[in-house]
Amino acid sequence: MTDVYNPFSLLNVFDSLRMRDYWMTTGTSDYLVRLLSRSDENIEEMLSSDYTASAFADYKATAEMPLPMIYQSGYLTIKGYDRETELFRLDFPNEEVRRGFLAMLASGYITKSDARMASWAASVRNAMDKGRIDSLRESLESLLADIPYDIRCSKSDGKARERDFQYAFYLIFRMLGGWKVYAEKASGQGRADCIVETDRYVYIFELKLDGTAEEALRQIEERDYARPYASGSRRVFRIGASFSSRTGNIEDWTTEE
Questions:
Q1: What pLDDT does residue 46 have?
Q2: Whole-angstrom Cα distance, residue 95 to residue 100?
Q3: By C-alpha distance, which of 85, 81, 61, 63 is closest to 71?
Q4: pLDDT averaged per 10 residues in sequence order, the chain, 257 residues
Q5: DSSP 8-class letter at 234
Q6: What integer pLDDT is reported at residue 188 of this predicted model?
Q7: What is the DSSP letter of 25?
Q8: Which pLDDT value is given to residue 254?
Q9: What is the rounded distance in angstroms from the CA atom of residue 136 to the CA atom of residue 155?
């Protein structure tokens, strides 16, 4: 594949001699945020799926099919193509767009001010970079407490779903950047809800709605989600978390190293 550079960002870098998010600061699409908020699709599924050209090249976009608008507005680009099946794989064109797009999506969930959000993000990065599990839980609880009820519940029936909480975790960690983040990462015996890899630590999350943290932790152990990291030098934390559909926050949390 041949990548196409962004002349707007590049020329601004040469003009100012500073690397900044020039393209993202030209404006954000409120329409796109509203479109995605009404859709049952999420960005993680879009990045892990293969598409025919008609699925994203068509200019029509609806709440049932937001992908064409996301692609046409430049937030996703073609990153892979299989000539035999004629299927395409999409992804963010670069780190600036990835970070900006996820922040834009998160703004629809999070009611914190920019200053408070920056402080919160710094505390989470510090906790995860240093393996401080208790601080991580406190930070996540403070963020989840700010998500309004009507946003965290399913659009179709008004009820909270386990998948909604899984997606919220994925968005949070991808938005922070600097780490490898996997949602529904497949292993030999199943799929872990969320895995975050930092330089020194690996965090394996299993999330349950109105269940128990012990049940979630037991699933990590029984399905051996940590096995791929057994021979590495990084410390691995297994984290089982239970969410309450009533409060929308972490009800129970247990960890094992």
A1: 85
A2: 8
A3: 61
A4: 72 91 75 72 81 83 77 88 94 82 69 67 88 92 72 52 74 78 75 90 92 93 90 93 86 92
A5: S
A6: 66
A7: G
A8: 94
A9: 29
Distance between first and last Cα of the chain: 41
pLDDT reported for residue 33:
72
Q: Could you give the CA distance from residue 170 to residue 193 in angstroms, rounded to a whole number? A: 9
User: Cα dist. 213→48, 133, 145, 186, 220 in Å?
Assistant: 28, 15, 19, 21, 11
Beta strands in 55-104 (DSSP E): 77-82, 87-91
What is the C-alpha separation between 162 and 243, in angstroms, rounded?
A: 8
Indicate the pairing of strand 201-209 with strand 235-243.
parallel
β-sheet bridge partners, residue 185: 192
> Scanning the structure block, which residue is given the tokens 């996703």?
76
CA–CA gap between residue 239 and residue 213 (Å, rounded): 8
pLDDT at residue 40 in the model? 67
Q: What is the DSSP letter of 185?
A: E
